[in-house]
Amino acid sequence: MARITEAHLIDSVADALQYISYYHPPDFIRAMADAYGREESPGAKQAIGQILANSRMCALGRRPICQDTGTVNVFVDVGVEAPLAWTRPLQEIVDDAVRRAYMLDENPLRASIVRDPLGARTNTGDNAPAMLQVAMVAGDRVDVTVSAKGGGSENKSAFAVLNPSDSIADWVVETVAGLGAGWCPPGMLGIGIGGSVDKSMAMAKAALNEPVGDLTQIRARGPQDRAEALRLEIFDRVNDLGIGAQGLGGLTTVLDVKIRHFPTHAASLPVSLIPNCAATRHLHFTLDGSGAASFAPPDLADWPEDVLSRTEDATRLDLDALSPEVLNELEPGQTLLLSGTLYTGRDAAHKRMVEQLDNGEPLPVDLGNRAIYYVGPVDPVRGEVIGPAGPTTATRMDKFTDRILAETGLKVMVGKAERGAAAIDAIRRHGAVYLIAVGGAAYLVSKAIREARPVAYRDLGMEAIYELQVENMPVTVAVDTHGRSIHEIGPRKWRRGG
Fold this sequence. Notes:
By secondary structure, this protein is of the alpha/beta class. The chain contains 15 helices and 17 strands. The chain has a domain at 315-494: fumarase, CATH 3.20.130.
């Protein structure tokens, strides 16, 4: 009998990770296209349009959908009769595949994993290790599902042990309402119910890999069990929150809700919630000993060609000529096209800048009347100026915002999702503005970057400070100089029901 070798698994996982870096699952794209067609909120519709346009560009150019190419999650179901030719631990085998995929010269993927989470948090450099889940199942084959999970959505995961009499739907809806937009909606909700703490979380994560789109059929024929009824209830109630794409307010916040459940203790009701973002990426394959899996490109007919970012009414903003008069005219929800000089800087760079200010040292860049972009780009290839360069979650910079605005004269920040109350107050007091680029449109955004050069903190890798020259980079005003936030105004306008 043919045996399933380590090489079969390594080749298959590595190829799958490259595949999902630039191909969305077609069922997800069809659901997004449907949401685009139904959307009535102009801001949300434009955001979904950018995500769809970006997805098609990535499929054609074979470049990452999102600059956060994710933590690798690998689910392996090993048939108890499978003829295995493995001599090493499965973790070692899978990690070899991750290294190969993420360090591929033709399409390098961003390494985001840091070792020693309690210490220096040094980047591993190759995105290993993977997060591995293994189950022994009936049969003589090995089934593998590979996914790449972005940090923004992963960070919004939640868990609770409810009383058995509590409403699961109430808890999920209240939790999602408090997540903000950092998980980059519209996306998926994976929910694990029952089992134990660890079992519940594992089920929620695995549920995110299920196909999208069966809720329409379930609604038409009527739910056949409690799980289907709960999925419909949560789907409707979450979308009624009006959060919308990128938190701008709109009709679609989730495309689907997936639930897995397992027997649990009579006194317990463990419930886990894990959202998946607009960069939903996963792929399944089976190994039977005949060789590595092969993956055919999807049919690009599933990607709508007529969906583009609508920027005809956008206001052009010259980043090299910022003034109080210009900034005071900007309003929440307004679409802008940025041109000029834009610096990058995210968590590590902000932390180092504040340390230098504490020590009375001059900063390596002059941020006076300048703009900064919260981004950690993918490395460029084949003559690119920069790789996919979408925004990271801005709230992680909130604790630095007042200090940076006060002591550097920075006036414009670009990121994704909402800002906290303290950051909004600082923005108002210092006459600054906060803009958002669309999370999940990293390749599209990168095409507006004409020049890029590192200017400080090069040892931080993708978190170094770069000086960018941008031309017509599409963004939305999220917080204006008066402290008004589109992430409060938009959802409030589009919320339905009680």
